Amino acid sequence: MHLTLRALPVAVALALAGAAGAAYAQQPADEGARTLAALSATTPAGMAANSAPDAGWFDRAWDGTKRIAREGDPDFYISGAIYHMPYDYSSERRGELNEGGWGGGLGKSLTDARDNQRMLFAMLIRDSHYKPQYTAGYGWIARWNMGGGVKFGLGYTAALIARSDYADYTPMPVILPLASVGTDRAALYATFVPFSNVLYVFGKLSFK
Fold first, then answer.
1. Is 51 designated active site?
2. 3-class DSSP assignment, residue 91
3. From the candidates 127, 180, 196, 206, which is the catalytic residue?
C-alpha cells in the first residue's frame, strides 16, 4: 500500500491510538478506571470545585471551566509563525503562503498544585492564505522546572477553529499536541497540525 507523506502524521496518530486502545483493553478494570480518571483530570473537570459528588462529567467540566475563568490569571496571546513542512509544500508554494500568522488573543490560565496549567483562550490570526482565522478552546500543559524559573511543558489543546478554507468558516473541532517553554509570566507555545502539515508557534504573556 502506498502511503503519502501528507497522510503519514494521520497514519501515525491512528496507529498510536490503536495501540493505546489495545493496551487499555488488556488492563484490569481498576487500572482502566485509573487511566480514565487520569485523562479526565487533565480536562476542565479536573478543576471542578463545587460540583455534587455524584455529578456527571459534563457538569464537572462546566464547573471547572467557570473556575478557570473566574480564578485564572489574565493572559495576552501574541501570534507569530506558521511553518509549512517542506516535505508537503514545495519552495514555490511556500513562497505563496503566509508564514507570519500575526494576530492576538485573550485568555485565562489557572495553575494547579502540581504546577500544571489549564488555559481558556480565544485568538484571531492571519492564516496561511492571508485571511482571518478564529480559534477558541482549552489547553492543558504539564510543566517541568528546568531551573532559573524556566519551565518546559507538554500537553494538548482542544479547540474550535473557523477558517475560510474549511467549509467557509464553519467551526471545526480539533485536538492537537501542545508544547511550551518559558516562565510563569512569558512563554512560547508550539503545536503541529497533522491534517495541514503545519507547525504553529505563538506566545503568551500572563498578568497576576
1. no
2. helix
3. 127
Residue given cell 471545526 in the structure block: 172
Residue 47, SS3 per DSSP: helix
What are the Cα distances from residue 44, in Å, to 49, 74, 114, 139, 185?
11, 17, 15, 9, 22
Question: What's the sign of the alpha-carbon dihedral 28, 30, 31, 36?
Answer: positive
Q: Which of 81, 48, 84 is nearest to 67 (CA)?
A: 48
CA distance 200 to 164: 18
Residue 89: other Cβ atoms inside 10 A: 19
Contact 165, 196 (CB under 8 A): no
Give the burial class of 141: count Cβ atoms within 10 A of its Cβ; 0-12 exposed, 13-18 middle, 19 or more buried: buried
From the candidates 75, 84, 109, 196, give the one annotated as an active-site residue. 84
127 flagged as catalytic? yes
Is 2 among the residues known to form the active site?
A: no
pLDDT, tens digit (0-9, with 9 covering 90-100), for 46-103: 998 877 767 889 999 999 999 999 999 999 999 989 999 999 999 999 999 999 999 9
